[in-house]
Amino acid sequence: MKIAVIGTGYVGLVTGVALSEIGHQVTCIDVDPEKVETLNKGVPTIYEPGLEELMKKNMAEHRLAFTAKHAAGLAEAEVVYIAVGTPQRADGSANLDYVMAAAKDIAQNIAMNVIVVIKSTVPVGTNLLIKSFINSWTKKGISVKIASNPEFLREGSAVHDTFHGDRIVIGAEDPETANVLAEINQPFDMPIVKTDIASAEMIKYASNAFLATKISFINEIANLCDQLEANVEEVAKGMGFDHRIGPDFLKAGIGYGGSCFPKDTNALVQLAGNHHHKFNLLKSVIEVNNHQQVLLIDKIVKHFGSLKGKRGAILGLAFKPHTDDLRESPALVMIPKLAQLGAELTAYDPIAVSNAKKQINETITYTDNLQTALQNADFAVIITDWPDVKNIALSSYEQLMREPIIFDGRNCYNLDEAKQANLIYYSIGRPNQSPELIR
Predict the structure, then answer these.
(1) Continuous segment of H or E residues that includes residue 115
(2) Quick one: pLDDT at residue 293?
(3) pTM for this prediction
(4) What value, to the nearest 5°, has the Cα angle with vertex 339 and ends 336 and 343?
(5) CA atoms within a 13 Å half-sphere pointing along the CA-CB vector of 186
(6) In angstroms, what is the C-alpha Rg of the chain?
(7) Nearest C-alpha neighbor of 256 from the set 282, 286, 234
(8) How many Cα neighbours within 13 Å face the side chain of 383?
(9) What distance in Å separates the CA atoms of residue 250 and residue 245, rounded to the nearest whole number?
(10) Beta bridge pairs of residue 375
(11) Phi, psi dihedral angles at 115 (to 5 degrees)
(12) Active site residue 28
C-alpha cells in the first residue's frame, strides 16, 4: 500500500523503515527540512542498531522516501500514520500539540479517502477527537477513518522488536478498517489483537504502567534487602520461577527512564484524575522511581563524608544501553547533585556525549573512552550498563583509579568476583563488598 508516516523520531522513523521493508511504498514526512535532507542521504537522525542498513536498502529499492512537504507526501497516501511526539506537560498530562498539527496537515493535504492511524501514545479519547478535527477541515466528499495502532518498541532494540514483537494491537471503529490494518501488518507474522479504539489506547498506557510497577516493586524489595543483608538477585530469581510473576523487569537498579515509562505513568495518573479516579498505586510507583535515582548519592556521601575535591567517573549517560537518548536518564539527576556536592566529574558514554552536552549545565569533562574516565578517579558510578562497562575486568578499576571504589547502579558485576577483587563495591539490594568486608 501507499503509506505516509508523519514524524521521523524514534517511533516514526522505525515504523516507516519497517513498513517499507515488508513491501509497502512509504513516504516519511517531517517539518524540519534539515532533518529531511540528512535522512535523504541515508543517515538516520537517531541512533538505533540496524536502522541505517534497512534505511539505505529500502531507499535504494525505491520503497522509502523522505520529504518536508506535506502536500507531496500525502498526495497519494492510502493510509497515514501519525507518529509525532506527545511530550509531558508541567501537570503530567500528554501534550497533543504535535498530534493536532499533524491532523491539520492531513486534513488540508489529502486528496482522497484515507485511514489515519495514530501510532503516537495518546490519552483515551484522542483518536475520536482527531477524527472529528480532521473531518472539520477536509474538503467535501473526502472521508477519514481513524485507528489506533500503539507501538511497543524498546529504544536500543526497536528494529528487532518491530519484527519480533509479542503482538500488534489494532483499535478500529469498524471491522473493515481493522482488516485493512491487519493486512498491512500481516508480513510481520505476529499475533494481531483487534479491539475498539479506546481499549487500544488504554492497552499502551496499561502495559507501560505495569512494567514500571514491576521495576519500582523490585527496587523497593532491593532497598529492604539492603537493610536486611539479603540479596535482591536471589529474591528476584526465586520470584521469577512463578509463571504468574515471571523473571522479566525484576532487575533492581536506579530506576527507569527514557521517553515512555516516566511520561506515560504520569499521563495515566493525570488521565485518571481527570475522571475522578485516584490512581494511588501508580503514584507510589512514580514516587519510588524518583527516590531510587538518588540512592547511590546517599551511599557515596555516607562513604566519603565530603565530596569536595573528589574525582568521580560517571559510567554511562544514556537512560539505557544502545541508545543516545538521555530523556529521564538518572544521569540528569545524579550529575548535578554530585557536582553541587563538590565532586570533579568525568562522564563516559560511547554515543550519548553530544546529547549530554546540550542537556547538562554543570562543568564536567566528557569522554567516549572508558579508561580515560576511570584514570585517577576516587570513585566510579555506573549509571548505564553498557556492554563495555559490564565486561571490563575488575582489575582495571584497581589499575586505573586512585581508589577503586565502585557504586554500581545497575548491578553489573558478580558478587563473588567483586569480593575477590581488591576494591570496595556498592550495588543495589546486595551486600557490599570490600577486602575488609565493610558493610
Answers:
(1) strand 114-118
(2) 84
(3) 0.92
(4) 150
(5) 8
(6) 24
(7) 286
(8) 27
(9) 9
(10) none
(11) -105, 125
(12) no
The three grid cell numbers given for residue 207, joined into one nine-digit string:
502495559
Mean pLDDT over the full length of the chain: 95
Q: Cell numbers at residue 401, please?
A: 583509579
How far, rounded to the nearest angstrom, does the alpha carbon of residue 195 sit from its chain's CA centroid? 26
Query: Cα(178)–Cα(163) distance, rounded to whole angstroms?
Result: 20
In degrees and rounded to multiples of 5, residue 430 shows phi and psi of: -135, 155
Pairing of strands 405-408, 379-382: parallel
The residues, ordered by sequence, that sit 6+ positions from 359 with a Cβ below 8 Å of its Cβ are 326, 332
Alpha carbon separation from 148 to 200, 269, 311 (Å, rounded): 6, 21, 50
Q: How far apart are CA 183 and CA 147, in angstroms?
A: 14
Q: How many CB atoms lie within 10 A of CB 437?
A: 9
Using CB atoms within 10 Å of the CB of residue 198, give its burial: 0 to 12 exposed, 13 to 18 middle, 19+ buried. Answer: middle
* DSSP letter for each residue of 209-267: HHHHHHHHHHHHHHHHHHHHT--HHHHHHHHHTSTTT-STT---SS---SSSHHHHHHH
Q: At 436, is the pLDDT very low, low, confident or very high (cuts 50, 70, 90)?
A: low
- If you search the block for the grid coordinates 534539515, which residue do you land on? 34
Q: Across-strand partners of 98?
A: none
CB neighbourhood size of 336 (10 A): 14
**Cα atoms in the 13 Å half-sphere on the side-chain side of 202:** 8
Which residue type occupies 97?
A: D
What strand order describes the sheet that includes 365-367? 365-367, 344-348, 311-315, 379-382, 405-408, 424-426
DSSP letter assigned to residue 31: S
CA gap 310, 100 in Å, rounded: 49
- Kindly state the cell numbers that stand for 284: 507510589
> String of b and e for 227-241 (b: at least 16 CB within 10 Å)?
eeebbbbebbeebee
Task: Please tell me the distance from the alpha carbon of residue 37 to that of residue 342, in angstroms, as a whole number.
Answer: 44
Burial of 300 (0-12, 13-18, 19+ CB in 10 A): buried
304-333 pLDDT, tens per residue? 999 999 999 999 999 999 999 999 999 999
340-381 pLDDT, tens digit per residue, is 999 999 999 999 999 999 999 999 999 999 999 999 999 999
Q: Evaluate the CA torsion angle 46, 48, 52, 57 in order and state its sign.
A: negative
